[in-house]
Amino acid sequence: MAEPKQERAVKTREAILFAAAEVFDECGYSGASISKIMQRADVTQGGMYFHFKSKRGLALAVLEHQQEFVHFPDGGAGLQRLVDLTFFIAHELQTNVLFRASVRLAVEQGDFGVQDDTAYQEWVEQLYTHLCEARELGQLLPEVDERECANVLVGAYSGTQVFSNIASGRVDLADRLVSMWRYVLPGIATPSALAGVAMPKGTRRLAA
Question: Which of 46, 50, 52, 147 is the most buried (most CB within 10 A)?
């Protein structure tokens, strides 16, 4: 039985998007080309341009769907959930090419004429939600501003993952996150909440 045309089109688009992510991840925006992406996706020129009109259009599609590439697990609350989320994202950066490519493109967006902080602001909203939950649970120090803290955390995390990528291809990212939290958590968490936050198994302990 022939595959429905609409279903085939969806699969083709997904194949192109995944191939584009692989090429952007490997080569960056400047080093990627439509021909490389077409070859990787095994599609014709007509198939490519039916879905995406340019390399820039492909890059924007990968960048704009960043959070859709990550499916967060359930579990945890407040500060523990916040910490667990950062380590989960670290694992996704190491294993999920769609997410990894979108993060690279967010850093390199000037190469394709974009200056858009939407991807970063979406992460601010994610972290802000968990910080508000931590406040409701009595885990935050009185002077902590949840919105300001979320912005600081996104900046700190972004810099940490970029540094880790350059230094080790993100192999050491988990240990760098332990170091980040060792200095950040005492500045935002009550003593009792701080004592209850655990780092993932296999990483260094929070305490020095």
Answer: 52
